[in-house]
Specification:
Layout (H helix, E strand, L loop, with lengths): L20 E8 L4 E7 L4 E6 L13 H18 L3 E7 L4 H11 L3 E7 L17
Parallel strand pairs: 1-4, 4-5
Antiparallel strand pairs: 1-2, 2-3
Helix pairs in contact: 1-2
GO molecular function, one term: structural constituent of ribosome
Keywords: Plastid, Ribonucleoprotein, Ribosomal protein
Protein name: Ribosomal protein S11
Length: 132
């Protein structure tokens, strides 16, 4: 008798499960803006930064570049099928507001917007006093 192989369902790449809810992390520092998109479980679906958007040097820290970077991420999100998102903003940079404005303008339903910037509870030890 011949051995028969069990035939498993072979799915094509186009039949990925559509993700309806996601989390957008905006990390805005003094020199760069990084936008990361993940599902609610925390698995990263897409990320982009000012450098990957084609900007170099001092232009990376501008609000305009943060807007372009977020717009690139939003186009990818719409392609993935995400309809609702929570936004976590971190950092003191100039691109915070521009990135959030871009997300709001894109028509995505925002569940909440949260500032998760870390705050020191006493900080680092200051340098010793200068003796002249």
């Amino acid at each position: 008798m011949k051995k028969t192989r069990s035939i498993k369902n072979i799915s094509s790449r186009n039949n990925k499960p559509r993700i309806l809810k996601g989390v957008i992390y905006i990390q805005s520092g003094f020199n760069n803006t990084i936008v990361t998109v993940s599902d609610v479980m925390g698995r990263v679906l897409y990320w982009t930064s000012a450098g990957t958007s084609g900007f170099r040097g001092t232009r990376k820290k501008t609000p305009y570049v943060a807007q372009i970077t977020t717009c690139n991420a939003m186009q990818k999100i719409v392609g993935l099928g995400i309809q609702q998102a929570a936004v976590m903003i971190k950092g003191p940079g100039l691109g915070r507001d521009a990135a959030l404005r871009t997300i709001r303008r894109n028509g995505l339903l925002l569940r909440f917007v949260r500032d998760v910037t870390s705050i020191p509870h006493n900080g680092c030890r200051p340098p010793k006093k200068r003796r002249v």
